Amino acid sequence: MSAEVITFSLLNGTLYGMLLFLLASGLTLIFSMMGVLNFAHASFFMLGAYFGYEISGIVGFFPALIIAPVLVGLFGALIERYGLRRVHKFGHLGELLFTIGVAFVIEEAIQMIWGRSPMDYQVPEALNFTAFEIFGTGYPAFRLFMLIMSVAIFAGLALLLTRTRVGLIVKASLTHPEMVSMLGHDVPLVFMSVFGVGSALAGVAGVIGGPILITQPSMAAALGPILFVIVVVGGLGSLAGAFIASLLVGFIQTFAVAIDLSVADVFGLIGVTQPPAALGALVSDIWNVSVSQVGPVIPYLLLVVMLIFRPMGLIGKRA
Amino acid sequence: MSVSTLDTPARSANTRLTAALPWLAITAMLVILPLLFSSNSMISTLNYLGTMAIFALSYNVLLGQTGLLSLGHGTFFGLGGFIATHAILHMAEAGLSFPLPLIPAIGGFGALILGVFGGWLASGRGGMPFAMITLGLAELVYAAAALFPSIYGSEEGIAIDRMELGASFGMDYGPTVDIYVIIAVWFLICAGILYYFSKTPLGLLTNAVRDNAERIEFLGFSARRVRMLAYAIAAAVAGVAGSLAALNFEIMTVNEMGAATCMLVLLMTYIGGTKHFFGPVLGAIVIGLMKIWLSDISPAWMMYFGLLFIFVVMVQPAGLAGILMDGIALARSGTAAAQAPMLALIGLAGLMTLIGTIILIELAYRAGLDAPLGPEITVLGLPLNTGSVLSWGLGAVLAGGGIAAMRPLLDRLDTLRHTLSQGETA
């Protein structure tokens, strides 16, 4: 691998990882708060992308970057207030099933409104130029903008949670809801707000991720399982773990795409060019598989390996 | 795991007869159904429903019995199907003669072995982690399947010829009815085994793990092992269902073990009702028929599935079987006549909401996805137009009015039931 490929993969891996963390952070916050994994989280991301596409067509990209996440956040808060809170009495299973139903209906509703084919969601004109050149290849400004946005939101969220009174109340509500409520804070409102903010973060990720990852009805189903891998690998309910796991998955997926090496190449080094026929069809299947083809499998493999050797995740409490 | 205190005293012949009655009724129904609906397409539908019923029953071992939400049960349906197709292909190639009806046993056994391994990975914790781990495992198998075209076929899947293994049991397995016989017999076997399993000490332990896993650990059982065994048994029966699907359609594709299948079995089982043994069968029949018939008449059928699922989750967690049982209990209580007018009003409000919702959804699909078909659409016999405010208004008024009327009506029903029960005790 050349230095050029490594540099670009590092940049893109960080970018993808930060985008994943925008989603995973909201998911983790909601999980540690309600003990429920919001299955519809990736659907909020998709809603963000579609809202972003629709609104930026009317008022332009930058206002849409504000309006679309606010809409998604409001929608999320409503889902919490009138849906999740009602099924709370049926336990976590009921809540999880409810979010699965919501994800299902959102995907259908999006197909109903925007159709089944991908949207023509373009990078905005103002950001459609080359930011800098390294090794003679330009790096698009929009990607740099995405990177800056995600890092800024990450920093803002970290400051909010660790340095402000709001963060204090939220963190206290996670661990000691009764005590916080005793002190006169409206805990259900805190929960609703965190759910709303988490959804809005997914919405932001959708608006800035939409033009790069294709805006289509299957984007939620494609990203959702990866998010769950991140949350489990990082350790359930751990923000720091989610951060590390997001970057890890981001790097794995971008580097895997860049490596064009197959089993045949490896054996070619020692002079074996044909799969030994005696080993059957299975081996000849694997023979031509390259690392980039294995890319989509690696996160799930990581999950399984993690479960075998460290079931609590990277940074997680003991089960 | 011998729990001798659970041994019940010998039952009287009378209770045995009552216990056997549902099974006799089901057997009779399985015999009568193909005689009533003898056309080829109807038999084909029955085959599909039977397969799905077995699949949903297997899922309920996890969801209803052990309280585990698996998001990857479709994997074992698919793997069982692929094991069966490869068994048929290899035996046909080797010129072996093997009775086709026993092929699902091979698929089921293969799925059992894989289920033990999957269960070992997934069953460390219940609840949320279990759901995510099963999702991850299912995605792993699905994503990895693309790397092995010789096992899973590529896009078009692996096709078989079910007649290749030759005739046995007096059938040559060409006609769909022959496959119906196989599926019906396997349905009885699987339902019988699973019902018996739910009464064994291990089956009762799974219930205990669902209700309080920690306490089970204190009693000296391993909750993990109980979950693992439940997972493996569910996987085996799902494998049987997958093999039957392979025999029925004579093809197996990777999509059969994708997220859609995992989702479908969850919908069927939960909508049918997880708290009654035959609830999942009911769900498989209702959802299966909806899938076949509704997809012909409406583009919105998936939307209806989703909304029905949310409705069941929010309002009626006992599912359709729960509604049925409530109805039976009401009829037996002797107060049905006194409650009838109120129930009729509630039914009316529900019907209004339903019709209004259907109108709105059909209009929305015509205005969005199906806009090229023109603005005019007939819903439930009503001529509507996506351009007219009147059409949208009709749907909104019906749906909104129904929902608004429902709350006071339900309150009144509660009051009525309260006074009725007080009258009883007085």
UniProtKB/TrEMBL annotation, chain A:
Protein localization: Cell membrane
Pfam families assigned: BPD_transp_2
Record keyword Transport present: yes
Positions of transmembrane segments: 59-78, 90-114, 141-161, 189-214, 226-248, 255-274, 286-309
UniProt record, GO biological process: amino acid transport
Protein name: Branched-chain amino acid ABC transporter permease
Membrane protein topology class: Multi-pass membrane protein
Origin superkingdom: Bacteria
Keywords from the named record: Amino-acid transport, Cell membrane, Membrane, Transmembrane, Transmembrane helix, Transport
Family: Belongs to the binding-protein-dependent transport system permease family. LivHM subfamily.
From TrEMBL, chain B:
Keywords: Cell membrane, Membrane, Transmembrane, Transmembrane helix
Protein name: Branched-chain amino acid ABC transporter permease
Annotated TM spans: 20-37, 43-62, 74-92, 98-123, 179-197, 228-247, 301-331, 343-365, 389-410
Membrane topology: Multi-pass membrane protein
Lineage start: Bacteria, Pseudomonadati, Pseudomonadota, Alphaproteobacteria, Rhodobacterales
InterPro entries the record matches: ABC_transp_permease (IPR001851), LivM-like (IPR043428)
Claim: Transmembrane is one of the keywords in the record: yes
Organism of derivation: Donghicola mangrovi
Superkingdom of origin organism: Bacteria
CDD domains on file: TM_PBP1_LivM_like (cd06581)
